[in-house]
Amino acid sequence: MSEEQQDLRNPLTGKILAIGALLTATLAIYQIFNLGTYTGFTMLTSQYIYALLAMMLPTVFIAIPLARGRRIEPTPWYDWLLAVASSLCCIFFIINSNEAVDEGWEYAAPQNVVYISLLTWALALEATRRCGGWPIFIVVFLASLFPLFAGYLPDSFAGISTPIDLAAIYHTNSDESLLGIPSQAFANLVIGFLLFGIALQRTGGGKFFIDLAFALLGKVRGGPAKVSIFSSGLMGSMSGSVVTNVLTTGPLSIPAMRKVGFSKTYAAGVETCASTGGVLMPPVMGATAFVMATFLDIPYGDIALAAAIPSALYFFGLFTQIDFYAARNRLAGLPAIDLPKIKQTMIEGWHYIFVFAFLIWMLLFMKQEAIAPFYATALLLVINQLRKHSRWKWQDFKDFAESCGALFAELTGLMAGVGLIMGALAVSGMSGTIANDLLFIAGGDMLVLLIMGALTSFILGIGMPVTAAYIFLAIALAPALINGGMNPMAVHMFILYWGMLSFITPPVAIGAFAAASVAGSSPMRTSLVSMQMGSIIYFIPFFFVLEPALLLQGTATEIIIAIACAVGGIVLISGGLQGYLPKLGDLTERGLLHWPLRLGLIVGGLFLAMPHNPYILISEQTLFILSFGLIALTLALGLVHRRWAPA
């Protein structure tokens, strides 16, 4: 839910959101902590998910207006009608859940169930439109109707045609649609981490991480831009939203960058790239990571661990580019007197690091990813209440609950809509055949299929939320790549990374446009700078999908060699992109020679970082010779020219 929409809420709406969040959190705790063993009442999965929908779907219609951004007070009667209808539909399925399972309602149901299913389907579509906007609504609407005409399409795309009544009951009663993986991931994993992320921000965690970043890096060369990387990485990990991250850290980091000499456009580009990478940073990644854990049927901690090296490589690439840019343009850091003190910052915010460490311990060592965020949130709030300078008052608790309710509502609508896509593909039989169709189109070539997947992920990422784009490709593309012999974790992470690229790539570049509004720069020029700065993220997914050791999927030796090659390659690529490399100095001073030098560094870095893989028709020895020869020639040429060039 946008800041504008939140500002337009009336007090009654805020109370409803807060109550919805409280009931949702209570129900999640009841189910996830298995408290039913003590009360004697254990919910079926379908009952639990429909109970969550009964609480959160009504808040979508009450909190998000029919026309996005338009203020209507009080809430109009038709929104109340939709809210009540959505709640009653969900309550009907809760009450009849046992009968639905016993009698197989997803395939045959009484006529009254058909009518209620059609109404629930329509309400889910409207909730999706309000939460995700018209682009995702159109995609979800057409996809959800796909079973009705699947049998009339050409053979390559044809499925099983299904009457509208059967499609409706399948959408509402099967484990593949509204009750499918998106809703299951939200119900079992996402709620706790959303609570933790909002609590961390509301208690001052964002300010602490920004202050810590300034204290550690503010005075070094190009310090404020490096601060942006550090703070945005941590903040993005908490919020899971690129735009929210930009609007939270940008007002502090962008003016600081301007103060030491960075242009408005470059400062906004740095903030865009850092905020985009933050969503990929463990341990609290975006909602997509939780869906991925459910798809792969592995602990979320394994996803977070696998994501650590790629995200670190991305931020390392940003860091080196900023350092080289600052060196080439002789940009200093901020005066020490203007920066917070490390000791004082740690005294005021040590508990944030402690709670983060506690969360990581529960995720990676205790393997308790479902309950870990609830314990971490409780610990954070208890410590916060014991500290006088940050202790919450009653209004703070109400604001916290309201923020949770707003985020729950938005994600509920999106997850329900994306579930409809999965259900449509499943009931039409396409989810099992589309992978073979893609393999046929690609001619069985995995590299061609990877490129097709990258482009499709990017295109879907333009018009759809990352989670929606990921789920669609996890159904359609991932099985084809996995059946071709690729690592499942690497394939799913590849899809996630490419879906994020629309935030920094023109012409859409939503993250860049948000940063440009903060910096007062040209949105299109900012997006072009963001694309250059973040260009390493275009290569990293290919690196780890072809070399799963970068996802810690391999032996210790394989992992160390892969990381070392990737780090070396990123340094060279960054040097070529920014026109500077230590020992070679400013390459732009070499006249026309600087273009061959920069190109040599980029290509040599790519050859060095490129993994050896049977899908690449170049042997490991040839790759090494090419990379070593090109790098050595480029460095030698640069050093000779620097030594003999006139002063």
From TrEMBL:
Ranges where the TRAP C4-dicarboxylate transport system permease DctM subunit domain occurs: 120-558
Highest taxon in the source lineage: Bacteria
Molecular function via GO: transmembrane transporter activity
Keyword Transport: yes
Keyword annotations: Cell inner membrane, Cell membrane, Membrane, Transmembrane, Transmembrane helix, Transport
Coiled coil: none
Parts of the chain that traverse the membrane: 12-33, 48-66, 78-95, 107-125, 132-153, 181-200, 266-291, 303-326, 347-364, 407-429, 449-482, 494-516, 536-552, 559-581, 593-610, 622-641
Location of this chain's protein in the cell: Cell inner membrane
Membrane topology per record: Multi-pass membrane protein
Keyword Electron transport belongs to the record: no
Record's signal peptide: none
NCBIfam families xrefs: TRAP_fused
Role played: Part of the tripartite ATP-independent periplasmic (TRAP) transport system.
The protein, known as: TRAP transporter permease
